[in-house]
Design a protein that fits this description.
Blueprint lengths: L1 E2 L2 E2 L2 H14 L3 H9 L3 H9 L33
Antiparallel strand pairs: 1-2
Length: 80
């Protein structure tokens, strides 16, 4: 795609579309933000780490009470 003398790949267009959808913004607004990024946004993104910090998730396990149930005459040995 050629817009105003610049070549734009189709993958870039798809990324802008998905970014606009994720941010619930119009594609034109996303393109404006990419063209003229506010300085405070640049500074915030520069302060972010390259890789997200790993998070440790601890699941709480609760003990389960096992109650035997009477089912009648059951041959548990497998013999008849």
């Amino acid at each position: 795609m050629n817009i105003s003398g610049f070549y734009i790949s189709s993958s870039f267009v798809l990324q802008v579309k998905s970014l606009a959808a994720e941010l619930c913004l119009d594609r034109a607004a996303v393109l404006d933000l990419l063209r003229d990024t506010p300085l405070n946004l640049v500074m915030m993104s520069a302060a972010l780490p390259d890789e997200p910090a790993p998070t440790l998730v601890m699941l709480e396990t609760l003990p389960i009470e096992i109650v035997p149930e009477e089912t009648g005459n059951v041959n548990v040995t497998g013999l008849r």
